[in-house]
Amino acid sequence: MEYGTIAREIHIDATPDVVFEVITKPEHIAQWWGFDASFPAVPGGDGRMTKRRRDGFGTLVVPIHVVETDAPRRFVFRWVHPEDEPATPQNSLLVTFELAPANGGTLLRLTEAGFREIGWEAEQLEEYYHRHCVGWDQHLPNLAAYAAGLVRS
Known about the structure:
By secondary structure, the protein is α+β, with helices and mostly antiparallel strands. It is built from 3 helices and 7 strands.
């Protein structure tokens, strides 16, 4: 396996405008992803996302750098880079959300790239790639249910 890019698609029963808000606004991110987010959703915006570690010991802090915002079509950011360094293709992962109207809702296409570029050893690369696959497989259905629930309420 190459461990290069994760790609997922999901249909969401909400308009692209609603979905865009859900993936860019901290109050929504906390509901479907479980992170407390603090970042401006504008190109060049830097911030961080935090949540309790799965093992219950301490807080996971994940820096984020917004690369592109094209409401309500695209949201692109880099993350997982060292907190004291700017995000680059050599030290961070690139996450792209692409939104398109589809069947009365939104087709969301997600890609996460850059695993090999970071230069992790094979075992670490495989572990991170697998963890992120599992994470997106869990969080994207949460996003879809949450966004659809906003429309229904």
